Amino acid sequence: MYGTVARLRAKPGAQAEIAALAREMRGVTIPGVVADYVYQLDNAADEYYMAVVFETKAAYVANANNPEQDTRYRRLRALLVADPEWHDGEILPM
Questions:
Q1: Number of Cβ atoms within 10 Å of the Cβ of 64
Q2: Average pLDDT for residues 62-89, to the nearest whole number?
Q3: Phi/psi class of residue 83: alpha, beta or left (left: φ > 0; alpha: ψ in -120 to 50)?
Q4: What residue ranges in the chain does DSSP mark as E strands?
C-alpha cells in the first residue's frame, strides 16, 4: 500500500467550512483509496493532519493527476493559510 500524510493549517474562522468540506468529500469515491482520515488537533483547533491510504502508488499518482482531484484540492486550499505539508510513502506492515 501507499499513502500520504499532510499537515494543514486553516485560515482564521475556516474550521466550520473545512468540516463541511470533509463531510462532503465522504461521498466521493476515489479509485484505489482504502481509507482516509482527518484529525483536528486538540491543542490547535486550526491545525489538521490528513492521512490517505491507497492500494498502490500507481493509484495515488493517478489520483494526483486527476483534474477532478485538482478541483477538490483547490477548494480545500482556499481555506488554508499555506500549502499543505505533504509526506508520501510506502505503508509498511507492522
A1: 14
A2: 96
A3: beta
A4: 2-9, 33-40, 47-54, 85-90
DSSP state of 63: H
| Cα 78 to chain centroid, rounded | 14
CB 1 within 8 A of CB 56: yes
How would residue 22 be classed by pLDDT, with cut points 50, 70 and 90? Answer: confident
pTM of the prediction?
0.89
d(CA 82, CA 6): 12
Rg (CA), the chain: 13
SS3 category, 9: strand
Q: Which residue has the cell 500500500?
A: 1
Domains in the chain (CATH in brackets) are: 2-88 (3.30.70.100)
Around Cβ 48, how many Cβ atoms within 10 Å? 22
